[in-house]
Amino acid sequence: MAISEQQRQKKLAKKKQKRAATVKTISPSMRKAKPYASYPIHECLIPDNLFDSGLGELVVTRRIPNGDIAMSAFVIDVFCLGVKDAMFMVLPESEYEHKIKVRMSATGDRGFEKLHQTCAKKLLDGVVDYAKELGFAPHPDYKNAYELLGNIDASVCPVKYTYGKKGKPFYMNGPYESPADIERILKTLTKKCGTGGFDTVLRLDDGMDDEDFM
Questions:
Q1: Quick one: DSSP state of residue 168?
Q2: Average pLDDT in the 94-103 region?
Q3: pLDDT at position 75, please?
Q4: CB 8, CB 70: distance < 8 Å
Q5: Which among 19, 63, 174, 204 has the fewest CB atoms less than 10 Å away?
Q6: Other Cβ atoms closer than 10 A to 168
Q7: What is the C-alpha separation between 208 and 138, in angstroms, rounded?
Q8: DSSP class of residue 124?
Q9: d(Cα 202, Cα 159) in Å, to the nearest integer?
Q10: What Rg do the C-alpha atoms of the chain give, in angstroms?
């Protein structure tokens, strides 16, 4: 059953409040990522359905000498918008394993797969470049979070990543995108790709937040 615009706005407001509360909770642990870039890689993860759904988290972690985990996480849209959100934090391994990873796996019908660090960087660089070509910059926190990748050489990754859906950009609005945001995105795509040069599906409500892993 379709929801009214008033109901949609109420749902959107609740989701924004949820995100604000989450950010307030994690902010004291957030730091500059660059000083942690020399520590050994712990693991890199992506959802196993990333290129089917188009949206998911890319997580890069390093283990620091005291046993804690330095983590950069990116919400990436491989169909269109690139890096929609990003964060860096340092946390105990137990919290990473039993809170962060459990929460990620509980979001949607999906699992997570490990990928080599060189492929994690290649995937991230590619999605950012693809979105920039369409006129979309990565999230403001991307630059700091990206510093954790350090000197990883993406050129040695043998995997070829293809962005877009069926040869075109594909845009589906997220729960935090207002009507004004949607209009701006569609105008940007039309200017770059022309009418018919991209596909889109607009949804009134969504059960999965783009940033649920946070």
A1: B
A2: 91
A3: 96
A4: no
A5: 204
A6: 16
A7: 21
A8: H
A9: 31
A10: 17
- Residue 59 in tokens: 């997580």
Burial of residue 191 (number of CB atoms within 10 Å: 0-12, 13-18, 19+): exposed
Q: Which residues, 6 or more positions from 41, have their beta carbon under 8 angstroms from its beta carbon?
A: 60, 61, 62, 117
Beta partners for residue 41, in sequence order: 62
**Bridge partners of residue 45, in order along the sequence:** 59, 114
Quick: pLDDT tens for 193-209.
Answer: 998 999 999 877 544 44
CB atoms within 10 A of CB 107: 17
Rounded CA-CA distance 209/137 in Å is 20
Q: Nearest to residue 127, comparing CAs of 118, 136, 114?
A: 136
Q: What is the pLDDT of residues 8-18, one digit of tens each?
A: 666 666 655 55
